[in-house]
Amino acid sequence: MNNAITGCILAGGKGERMGGVDKGLMLWQGKPLIETVITRFSAQVDTLLISANRNLERYGGYGVSVLSDHRPEYAGPLAGIEQALHAAPHSLVAIVPCDAPNLPLDLVVRLREALFSHQADIAIATTPDGDQPVFCLIKKSLHASLVTFLNQGGHKIQDWTAQCALVRVSFDDASECFVNLNTPLSLATCVDDYDPNSLPVADARRLIAQFLQPIRETVPVPLRDSLNRILAEDILAPQDVPGYDNSAMDGYAIRFSDIHSKTETALTVAGTALAGTPYPHELKPNEAIRIMTGAPIPIGADTVVMQEEVRCEDTQVWIAPTLRAGQNVRARGEDLKRGSAALTRGTIVGPAELGLMASLGLTETRVYRPLRVAFFSTGDELVEPGHTLNEGQIYNSNSYTLYGMLTALGVDCVDYGIVKDDPAALESAFRTAASQADVIISSGGVSVGEADFVKHLLNQLGEVLFWKIAMKPGRPLAYGKIGSSHFFGLPGNPVAVMVTFYEFVREALLTLSGASPCPSTPMVRLRCTTALKKPPGRVEFQRGVASADATGEWTVRSTGAQGSGILRSMCEANCFIVLPQDSAGTLAREWVDVHLFKGITGS
What is the pLDDT of residues 249-282, one digit of tens each? Predict the structure, then answer.
């Protein structure tokens, strides 16, 4: 027992530098960080635990016992260490964080050797950068002293270890193994072939998705006001739906046992059942009841025959022997059982969802508050519509395009208008927007021009994952964080603004708004009637028109000129023709991927 070691991975923490995202579940080289840490650490210990303060069920999915380290007062890594010392079945407990996927494979062996050789109670790793106290080996017997330290208001791990018999173990030969992935950029730069100035489209989407933590604030709204909002709770059926067995057809309710198996059966029509007016008696043998769609099935009946399938003579109906027991009967609870989820949290409420909630008798529901999005255009050449243009000036169309796209998503948008190409003005706009909004969107100012100050400011105010995407139009596209606010720096060209919004920003905003699963861009494969050209090396989103020809076959064609400033072409188009990065174009009548606008733009 004295030689056995319990290992604990600290997966708690607020993830403040990651924008509140749980680091252990973020992707690193294609899989969650915690998976890599488990693989490298589990081979060094006899029993493995995970200590976390959220997402306990997801961590439990890795087949490891999970401890909750939640405390009324946030205590950092000591909260997880306290839980590990309490729960560990062995006398020694090894600790590592969840954000160090390259931790040394001989970490525990070296710590244990130093602990016993120096007769210490705690052994911690140290590198040229200083002590690494969350890479340590601790005697379980220190649990009581740690509880006392925490109860006295202590929370710094260095203050606690200073009170104990401590030995430092040098890992100068493996200092790179202790690098923590503490920021979005540090995580992104670990991606194979990461290039912030030429990121593939798929990698950009994946990186953005890792940092999207949905909002949590909810509000109750009257039922009709929930249209196009996102449900913040499961909608449970208060009763069975339907609430009684009823007819799915106009026809005759019968007892299946009365029907002959080989010849027609004559039954006497004893009455009528209407929706809202049920037949008041029990059905007798050899009787039929005229029944309308939605009417309750009479007592004793179990099958409904469509009126088109019977032969009527006076007060009798003749029924063929081809009948199936129970046909055309909608059973009680067939759609929804009482207490079952009619709609799930994260559902975007459309007309059908609105009607379903009304059918359950609801008058209000709880939805997520609207996402707050601040947006502005940058450039000294921009002028608002309604003013006279001087030489070299253009009207600010991007703010209007962004307003339309944002409004279609139901977000709470704030238009900051035009911000001049002045560092002080831009810094003021970013700081104000970051204090007021969940998301900041700028257009212009992220390319390589002399007056493009945006990216320089962002490096000072926050952190940026990437600046450019291997795509056309829309190559200059930035994504990062300013404090807790997400930032999207879109190009200045009008068409590029719309392409990058639909291909990157739209889905991110829906995810942040609480939509789950997030509705992705509708995509189909169609034959392209026109030949298209492009150079290999980037994905191209060409404007297209999808339509049915005289034979009913759906095809797609280009709108023609594809310049990034030709906004009229977006009015003509109803889709993007997506040409892959390695493609050199396509011949006429070849199949292409098509992203449909319908379902994206709200049109």
Answer: 999 999 999 999 889 999 999 999 999 999 999 9
Q: Do 49 and 14 belong to one domain?
A: yes
Question: At residue 2, does pLDDT exceed 60?
Answer: no
pLDDT of 38 higher than 80: yes
Residue 113 lies in a domain: yes
Give the Å distances, CA to CA, from 363 to 148, 340, 531.
Answer: 52, 19, 54
Whether 235 and 273 map to the same domain: the answer is no
Q: Average pLDDT of 498-507?
A: 93
Q: What's 413's domain CATH number?
A: 3.40.980.10
> Global pTM?
0.68
Q: What is the DSSP letter of 344?
A: -
In which domain, by residue range, is 570 found?
A: 523-596
Give the separation between CA 258 and CA 44, rounded to whole angstroms. 74
Contacts of 471 (CB under 8 A, 6+ apart): 201, 477, 499, 503, 538, 539, 540, 541
- Is residue 192 one of the residues assigned to a domain? no
- Structurally, the chain folds into a number of domains equal to 5
pLDDT at 578 over 50: yes
Among 98, 106, 95, smallest CA distance to 28 is for 98
* Domain of residue 228, CATH code: 3.90.105.10
Q: How many CB atoms lie within 10 A of CB 230?
A: 24
Q: What is the pLDDT of residue 207?
A: 83
